[in-house]
């Protein structure tokens, strides 16, 4: 039951593509104008980069002036005049920086915007030209992501980041140059320590990788469990699995804490080294200044800060490199697509157009397999003629190649061997757009576009007059219902035609096909989705329009096929029979089987068609190719409130308190250091610095440890709760593609660990910044309150500029996304419905619509370039302005109020450093925002109330459970496919101890009825009674504990045989004797004893180490050990060869004794001795009784048995 759905999502995430695009190739779409802009932008960035070292020159001269003034004691120097001069220098540099910053950013962004627009256009144009086979191999969701995310990544790599990188790199070079120029001795001494810093940074990166590996084991458990969630639910193993998962989380937690410890240690270590550098430099420098008088104090500062700034900027330039790398990675796929030549180019002008078309189609020895599944042959040497003007019907079981043949006629694919001809011309030589313009197609699930009805019909042929539209609508029997709508032909049909009923959509699609006035009409199950009344209407329309056209109709309903001129029966990719209705009935082949099952169904239907509107589905299938559901995985969630996140972290409060204390000490130290720094010019203070650096090491260490411990405990708790909540959801929830095992495992892996960003380290950061600013302001007020007040005016701006730069690094992704919304809708609609668009030949229209929509994001980007540039310039020049004002006022105070100059230094450096700290704190916001959103997603999961709860104790439980089952008029559709009615009034009952067998073709609802009994789903209408109680009122866990199930592909877990058998009963502890007893009943014991490790043999992932028969018997033992009252066998022996089937069948017969049993089987031998046999078709029972009784009825069952025709 579970296997098919669960196997697919094993592979999880794709590997990142290898980078095959050089950095400069990213600019391959730049025109001359853009190249000039980028060159000019780079020059600005270089000049801008040299501004910081320039400022140091001024700073050095300033220091010298102050000291001179101090020594000469106010006599010769007009300090105020000097200071004013320096203030002007600062203003000048600041103004320059503003203009340069603005130009550098806005030029680069503008240039990038133009290139990105070109890339988007080229990419979409190329994608729309690709052949359908390419779309089979590339999921639509992936293409949509590429359209948005990957191109945004390229944007990040070629826009402002380049300018910023050039600027920082220049600063790095200039800083070192200045250091060497002003004082090479000191520079060399400082450089000698720097490798120690690099070592720390390198080790940090290593650790992250290890933590992810440690989680991998727990992730594998989660993946295994979520992939086989039906088995877990059937055997009530939820709590057991949560515990197993939790055990595996411990190692991940250990690594996380270790990582935190080491990270803390390294942060401390980095600061420790930096301060040692300071100490060394000042110790050595002051000896140069005082003892040998080689340097002036100003030079000492210039050299020291020059080197420091150079080192810092090199560090800040590295995130840009990351952006470049991810941009190149993204460009690899995008550019490869842009350069790929489609195999069938739908927009090419090449190929013949015939003057006169008769409409004879012929397949010559066509062999074909889909490019996405090369191992499955769909058509095998198909030979087939379709004569012009005739109606040919294709019939046959699902997967026989009927729809594929139709797609080859449209030339969505080219055959691997053989050819398809139109009037004797190979269609590969004809012009594609012309060929497709001859064909009108009506599909089972027609795709309408999100515009008005008239526009939808107009898609059929460009330049159609309104009269033609009305005529087509009349021919398609659509005119009347359209005129009844309030807006008539201007009614919007909604996304994907969602506002219309099936019959209405179908008729609009027929009108769209007719307006083309096609020579060839292809009807792929065109009426299967309709109820009887609308079917009659649509069928009528189709009969009208078939006249004089070559028509191919695929259908499963006899009523639609009987009056075809020729019927062709397909099986296994060949046309096995051809002829008229009566001829084929005598042949007793494919057609005959279909007819038998159907006519039975039809008799039943007439008997109960009191409810004509029930949408009856086709006998057999829901469409061989369902277009993938649109993949919009990211539902918008409101970020979660921090209070709630903290609540989950409450048990760790002592750690958090301890961590905050460390953070506070660290924060308070920064300003104290600036105090010491102003003393340097007068005193040497090595011991103080050494002490300070040790203290930093200890505090960072404790802070890192405490927060990582609390964070990892939180992550583990959230993962466990999340996993627990996932397993508690009803099975229907897992059918939603957004909750595929892959997606859920990723959610556990990443979301849970991102939530940390909102608690521990975030709190540390905030505490750190607050103490920092607090201490700084106290110190400054102590030394000079006047000056402090003046500088405080600039504090908000400093903080703003810091915050802005942080925002800059994370980019303005949100606004870009909004601007791309409209274009994204068009591209999404186009890619989801690519077959329909190709069939209508409308690729060009969509490309044009898309390009019109690109104008808005482009304009937005240009506007952004200016705003962004101005903000950046402002952020960069604020520091200069603040300095100029403070030094000017400082000079005034020194002169008028006799303030000591070292005080001026202290105040300014204390506040300016704390200002940047403020900025740094706000730079942590991106993690924080991410964390809140991740948390919100998590809470959404924890708060969801499942429709069928496993964990609750509510619902009936009773002691003498008999196992009496009754289905009363059950109707059911799967929540993920609400348009397809699976059960359509199923009524059948089984007394305790009886065996009920279901037979019928696939898709008729046999397995579904079993799932309703297990309460994986509840019926939409009707009731399932168990011992006379309604199933929805029964406690789910209790009910499942009474049911044992053996399915067609049993799912085993990756553990020993004994553990797999024990899994059958998770309510109690089972002894080894119980296991052996169950194994003996399942004819399994002897085989297990022959294995080297006996019952401790590991079965491998998904039971891969065992043969099918062995797996099947383990599954039977697992079902027996529960001692269930009800046994469900879902095709339990169909996958076995005759030998093992015998053994397993014996085991099953033993297991059935004294239990209510429901068997689903395709082999008649397994059913004959059942108490009741129910023949199902289209979701209800058409006849039931014992084998003898049914044979006597001479109905569907009789025909199946006597002709030996396959049931499925």
Automatic annotation (TrEMBL):
Residues annotated as domain ABC transmembrane type-1: 39-326, 697-930
UniProt-listed SUPFAM superfamilies: ABC transporter transmembrane region, P-loop containing nucleoside triphosphate hydrolases
One Pfam family of this chain: ABC_tran
GO molecular function: ABC-type oligopeptide transporter activity; ATP binding; ATP hydrolysis activity; bile acid transmembrane transporter activity
Any single biological process term in GO: canalicular bile acid transport
Localization per record: Apical cell membrane; Recycling endosome membrane
Region: Disordered, residue numbers: 602-637
Catalysed reaction, written as an equation: taurochenodeoxycholate(in) + ATP + H2O = taurochenodeoxycholate(out) + ADP + phosphate + H(+); cholate(in) + ATP + H2O = cholate(out) + ADP + phosphate + H(+); taurocholate(in) + ATP + H2O = taurocholate(out) + ADP + phosphate + H(+); pravastatin(in) + ATP + H2O = pravastatin(out) + ADP + phosphate + H(+)
Domain (ABC transporter) ranges: 361-597, 965-1203
Gene Ontology CC: apical plasma membrane; mitochondrial inner membrane; recycling endosome membrane
Major localization class: membrane
Transmembrane parts of this sequence: 35-59, 87-113, 162-180, 186-207, 261-283, 295-314, 653-673, 685-707, 789-810
Source taxon at top rank: Eukaryota
UniProt entry tagged with the keyword Translocase: yes
Membrane topology label: Multi-pass membrane protein
Alphabetic keyword roster: ATP-binding, Cell membrane, Endosome, Glycoprotein, Membrane, Nucleotide-binding, Phosphoprotein, Repeat, Translocase, Transmembrane, Transmembrane helix, Transport, Ubl conjugation
InterPro entries registered for this protein in UniProt: AAA+_ATPase, ABC1_TM_dom, ABC1_TM_sf, ABC_transporter-like_ATP-bd, ABC_transporter-like_CS, P-loop_NTPase, Type_1_exporter
Function of the protein: Catalyzes the transport of the major hydrophobic bile salts, such as taurine and glycine-conjugated cholic acid across the canalicular membrane of hepatocytes in an ATP-dependent manner, therefore participates in hepatic bile acid homeostasis and consequently to lipid homeostasis through regulation of biliary lipid secretion in a bile salts dependent manner. Transports taurine-conjugated bile salts more rapidly than glycine-conjugated bile salts.
Family (UniProt): Belongs to the ABC transporter superfamily. ABCB family. Multidrug resistance exporter (TC 3.A.1.201) subfamily.
Record's subunit section: Interacts with HAX1. Interacts with the adapter protein complex 2 (AP-2) throught AP2A2 or AP2A1; this interaction regulates cell membrane expression of ABCB11 through its internalization in a clathrin-dependent manner and its subsequent degradation.
Protein name, entry field: Bile salt export pump
Species annotation: Cyprinus carpio
